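hi support,

uploading two proteins for the ticket. first:
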Amino acid sequence: MKKNLSRLLALLMAMLMVVAMVGCGDKKEKEEDTKTTPAASPSGSATTEVKPDVPADRYDATTTPRTGANESTPLVISTLTLDGKFSPFFATSGYDTDVVGMTQIGLIGYDKDGAPVAGIDEYCLAYSYTQEVKDQGTDNETSEYTFVLKNGITFSDGTPITVKDVLFSFYTFLDPLYDGSSTLYTLDIQGLSEYRTQTTADVNAKYSEMAEKIYAAGLDSEGKPNAVDGVDAAMVEAYWSYLSEAGSKFAQEIIDYVASNYGSTAYVQAYFCPDLTWEEVNADENLKIAYGMAMWGFGAYDAATNTLTDATGAAHDLSSETLTAETYWNVIAAAYGYDLTSDEGINNVSAGSTMDTLLSDLFVLNEGSKEAEGGIPDISGITTGKVTCDDGVERDYVKVVLNGVDPVAIFQLGVTVAPFHYYTDGFSGTLDEHGVSLNDKEFIAHLKTKNNAPLGAGPYVFQSYKDNVVTYVANDSFLLGSPKIKNLRYQVISQGSELDSLKTGTVHYSDPSATTEIVNDVTEGSGDYAKLAYTLVDNDGYGYIGINAQFFPELEVRQAIAYSMNIQLTIDNWYEELASVNYRTMSKVCWAYPENPENLFPYDGTGAKSKELFLAAGYKYDEATNTMTYPDGHEKAGQQVTIKYTIPSDASEHPAGSVFLDSQKVLESIGVKVDIEIDQNVLDKLSTAYENGIQVWCAAWGNGGIDPDMFQVWYSDPSVNQGTSPAAKGLFWLYQNGSDEQKETLTKLNSLIIAGRGTLDQEERKAIYKEALELSTGLACEIPTYQRKNMFVYNKDVIKADTLLSGEDVTPFQSPLGEIWNVELN
């Protein structure tokens, strides 16, 4: 249940608007760069009262008290299962992120379209921000981001926010031992690599090269290191000494991924144990790890004996044994015979990082740092200082310099600004000038002790989480004004019970899956529905039908299948007015989606177009027997063409079901046999679709984000892209083995994807992606089908409807509660 309020602070990957936002003057002579927090005024010196950078008309409940329901009645919002990691650093699930987000503030904010913003009236700490590309087009090209901070803003406990809190947040996210969900460390910030590895660039390169050689030599089937030419045996031994630590991280990523993506009772009961709920699994660390193993094919759970039998055949009695990520890793390693280097090896089951990366990071950090005298105390690309703005007021700023150009960097740089004083309170170790203890397990562990009680500068103050209820009280010092509603709650409910919870009054606001039945019932407004109202908004994602090019290497054959697909049926037979057709391989809410694109594969129910394309590819048709056969030279030459469609449920229970059934009839009318197979696990098999026999399937992309970067899904050179999405569609294979024409198309598509990443100019990027989308869609490996709507339903007897955002202000990136501090109760 993504409320689209707090998640924008830290998790939104969105579009980039290329301008200097609300500039804070160009008075460079008054800037002073430092690497540490500017010193406070000396004791006894004159001080000037700082005027808070807040809206002049902000509501202050301490001077104008709340009345009625706003003072006495809590607003109750639904949520699903919570992990209890309520930390701005370590929250992993979307639901936990919602909970902690109510208490936090980001360095920059985001508008209703997901674009970054700053200013006195914005939900963020930045008074302004600028971004500038220097030495553009040269080998020394850099991107410089300057964030000017508001004066006089405080955390909810009254402590002033300073530049040190910003540095503390940056340096925590960038610590080599940080193991939360932020990927800030992937940005090419100047000096970051040297800081994280505590080595110079030369030493870093030396140990990275050594690590690459050692990893390539690999381990034998018993897990013992193989010798490496030109590398001292002691270094080889040192490298592999980090295997358990790296492997545990590798396994933990799988556990977290399963919890995040398959954390529902429906998945638990279908693939793990029919008698357990997700809530029960999530509350028991042993079961949670066992579930992560089972979902990845490394274990089977027997509820009767409370035993997990792992992939090696070993049995784990969960009543007496404690499973860990290291346990999981040992099973993975044994099951794969410590194969770390082949295409079918351990990295094939990665849920994120690969073992070579994890091992190299640990090796360079721990061994390479021994050659760095005095260490690397700072990240050279992060500096602070003071600037006098156009209004004559002096403010602090933070500057971040990146090598090259990265259009989406601004969204990763918009970190949550967490209170240094709160999260380090009680830490017994030594903190550096940035407020952290670098590469210190005890420091990271200390931060996690605050996971159950977040504190920040957001609109609400966390009070407690018990009995499936999160309670808050208003933060009356919130920079945009005291929230109009004093008390707020998140109520945990079961997935699918959203509407019933609204009807019974258990919650006042929820987001059930949008259906025409709910729309009609709420619109009609009889009985329990009389008190309800709803808002619809486009979903940030789209449905598609995938076609694996390794099974169908001829472009004409994939096109023939595409022409047989009547994607309008996903609308007519399923979503009706709650969706629209999509003609490009991108979410329609993205700013780069082309205006009124042409349907490249208009449906032909006669089969004539499909037949024409099969014949053009050299296939043969016998009209007397109505049989289409494979061409000469094919391994199945002379046999009837047979295609397998795979769907995760019965056709009557899936939006693409009627499309598959109709396509089956169309293709069979020209002699092509189509088998439709139900496989509930089809989505889990897509990373190895060819090996699993997944030829044509239906699925949907979710949370596409605003930024149109196509690299992860469409960049087809396997030596560059380590993702699994191109493999599902057979693009890696096609890039290496396809026809010259298709190789040329993929090469051009790759170059366009890189070009789209190489400029901050939105109009230039829009033109690039328009061409790239024609190529990607034209490959007929992914046929877009529908873009559905999401739904927000609320109790209008409780919530004052005209205080919610509505109309064009409600977007995939901003819900009706997007300005929750302005919402009121009746």
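and the second one:
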Amino acid sequence: MRISLNWLRDYVDLRADADELAHRLTMAGLEVSAVETLGAGIEGVVTARIVERGPHPGADRLSLCRVDDGTEIHEIVCGATNMQAGDAVALARVGTRLPGGLKIKKAKIRGQASSGMMCSERELGLGEGHDGILILPPNTALGRPLVEVLGLPDTVFEVDLTPNRADCLSVVGVAREVAALTGAELRLPEPNLAESGEPIADQTSVTIEDPELCRRYAARIVRGVRIGPSPRWLQQRLQAVGVRALNNVVDVTNYVLMELGHPLHAFDLQRLGGQRIVVRRARDGESFTTLDGQERCLDADTLMICDGDGPVAVAGIMGGLNSEVEDTTRDVLLESAYFDPANIRRSSKALGLSTEASYRFERGTDIEGLIRALDRAAGLIAELAGGTVAAGIWDAFPGPRARRRVTCRPARVSAVLGVELSRDAIVTYLQALGLSPVAETGSETTFEVPPHRVDLEREIDLIEEVARLHGYDAIPATLPKVAMTAGERPAARRTADRARDVLVAAGLTEAINLSFIDPAEDERLALGADDALRRKVVIQNPLNSETAVLRTTLLPGLLRAAGLNNRRQTGAVRLFEVGRTYHPVDGQVLPREVQRVGAVLAGEQRPLGWLASAQAVDFFDAKGVVEGFVATLGVDGLGWETVTDRPWLHPGRGAVLVLGGEELGWCGQLHPDRAEAYQVPEPLFAFELDLNRLQQAGRKPGAFPGLDRYPAVARDLAVVLDRGVPVQQVLDAVADCRGREPLLRSATLFDIYEGERLAADKVSLAIRVVYRSEERTLTEEEVQRAEAGVLTHLEQQLGARLRGR
């Protein structure tokens, strides 16, 4: 926000120089990030008048002008075309140095002597205009320094505001802050208008169809205007704050916007169908061409200003080509309204259209001050464009609300700021900002908040205001008294960190993907129509169609990353991710969040080298990573079962990790069709585990059980059983023997035999069973008895027999 100090002085006396004022504003929360001096370096430029303009005898595009500065006539060759005899101009005489460093010298241009230069705005450092020279008002006295005529020099502050300080997005808003900080009197600009003619109620009407999005809409009519350039003082003030001058009517609306901070819009009344206003939502798919010439496709969330025929403006953002003020405009309808900030922000983002108006509306404007802005603009238009203001205001205000009230406790103020402040001091500070004390009890005071301070909602907001005016530098720096306690990471964080440590140690690299995914991932994974993973949380305002829902599995992001690595030919892919998935819950607003770990592996098991032959990763590499991680959690009783409901896995090449009948995750080879869809190398193996359930099932830390005191005895069993019996079922059957055979410690499969010595429907499994006692060294008889019990149990449960019998 650019603030002209010359403009600021109209509303408050400045008792400090520019540097001190910039410092005080910055310390009060209005950061002055840059200070610019307008008019510096043009002290030698004076006013002059063109006495005569004629063609250059040697150049068609040049003019030969005789210019009078009040003391002498100067012969000047000029390339501009926007001037004529009698115009008052800015003259840089010979010897004058301009802001860009150019020094004016006598010169010959195409054979004609030129003694001086008539300057444009850009050459004077006053603006970007360079299409022609600067033309001054006709009654400008000759020979006066240009800085005096233009009211220069002027200092301009670039103020960086936080989003909550919408009240300071105007010159008056900053003047209000300066008055509060310095104790100076605030002088608000008073509207000056005379009403005449037919009442406005007989000329137009305003209908608000959606009062939630438009809480107030006021209008005035000014008839008989003459569109033309604005006076120099108005153009100069707009240029100082970075606004380009267009014409007197539009410039007035921009002037009042910068002065009071409330956006206005001027419609050509004769171009409004039915000469009336209707405020309604757009219809889905409705199109509208805005003032920038762009055709916009609208949705039902966009608020529109319409006439009797259709849209004429996007509410709070930009007007339309079909109702803009033109050179032929004679009657103007002025709009001053209050629009819902959240809706304006959504519409601005959806349309990709940000304007000075939307910037203010989306932060909140003064719903009561819009009438002052409307009257101020109507009076200025009548003064500068020669129109007459119709009697009355059309003020549609369907739901007035009481001003907000906030209670403040002096004790709380002192506790938060760390400095003792009396009730009277607090009241004085807040009254300087326009807050009024309306109730008082023994320990607290209630204040009524002025409508322009939309950011003051809670007690802590008032405490911040007190701190600003008291001065942050006046608050002593003290260290807080905090009890130091040893922190402990939550169990979920410890489990996630352990997963990262184990997988990195296993040679995998962590990937970080967005939780937002493309709904089309369901088809890429071949999910069934009733698959629970299809139920997703839908994002209301997605960045694009590919980030429209929250993920229910980590797999799509990992597969996309694997595909990218494959296309870049990075070699073996070993990626994992620890992250959350999101699952809607019926009857609840927020979804259920599950912490998971997932991974994908493809390519060679180890880097190419002379010591080891090339061998691709397989299912057991992925399964080994899973079991290595799970082992660190101390989860007992885990097992593997055949997978049946994971359509993205290769049939017969996947398994689910189970505990007590509950699934904790899955592991397997990606289906070739899915591999093709994601352009990943084949074969690719993946797994995904539920960290929440694994954490709950994990063994809690306890006392160290000690080292084994007695040796173990290992026996290898070769058992023959039906080919269709899963290995996990065999190992579970051995584990079941622990209740009857307390010496049994573990069982591990180490070989599988299928061959001509066995029937076609049989298979031989070699299992190493370990026995140990914590009390003594085992005897051969004890081991044989325990082994017999295991074999008997396997025969009874699975029909297994010892090979060779």
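thanks. also noticed: The first strand starts at residue 2 and ends at 4.
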